[in-house]
Design goal:
The chain is mainly alpha-helical and 139 residues long. The chain has a domain of 72 residues. Helix content is 55%, strand content 7%. The chain has 5 helices and 2 strands, in the order ββααααα. A two-stranded antiparallel sheet has the order 1-2. The chain is rod-shaped, with a radius of gyration of 33 Å. Keywords: Membrane, Transmembrane, Transmembrane helix. Belongs to the CD225/Dispanin family. This is TUSC5 protein.
């Protein structure tokens, strides 16, 4: 005599009746149906990868601030902005190789050096213009 791996379970919402007025459904072990989740329950769960990628594009890839570093190269603080550009390129290369921690670290350094270069460059330009105008009244 062989044992059966199926059993009968009462599931809510089933229309199949066994003659006693209760809803039962015969299912096999391992094939139990999960009750459908309510919309509020679904919102508490983790979002799918497509929803995550559309909400925050390229969230997994750290920023390298290459445009900011290139913009800082137009400021007259040559050593700092060149180093910022190098850090930015190194950050991009690290990100492409899969080293996200290194890419984030190098990207933050590139951003910091770019901002310092832009601020110092703006100060130098403003000082140069103000001293030029002040020293030469015919200007």
């Amino acid at each position: 005599l062989r044992g059966s791996k199926s059993f009968t379970a009462a599931l809510p919402g089933e229309t199949e009746r066994n003659g006693h007025g209760l809803g039962y459904k015969s299912v096999s072990v391992g094939h139990l149906e999960a009750p459908p989740l309510s919309p509020s329950r679904l919102s508490l769960g983790r979002a799918s990868s497509t929803a995550t990628s559309t909400a925050a594009p390229e969230q997994g890839r750290p920023r390298d601030y290459l445009v900011l570093a290139i913009f800082s190269c137009f400021c007259p603080v040559w050593p700092i902005n060149i180093v910022a550009l190098v850090f930015s390129i190194m950050s991009r290369n690290s990100g492409q190789q899969g080293d996200t921690d290194g890419a984030r670290r190098l990207g933050r350094m590139a951003r910091l050096l770019s901002i310092v270069s832009i601020v110092l460059g703006t100060i130098i330009i403003v000082l140069y213009i103000s001293l030029s105008v002040r020293g030469n009244p015919s200007f």
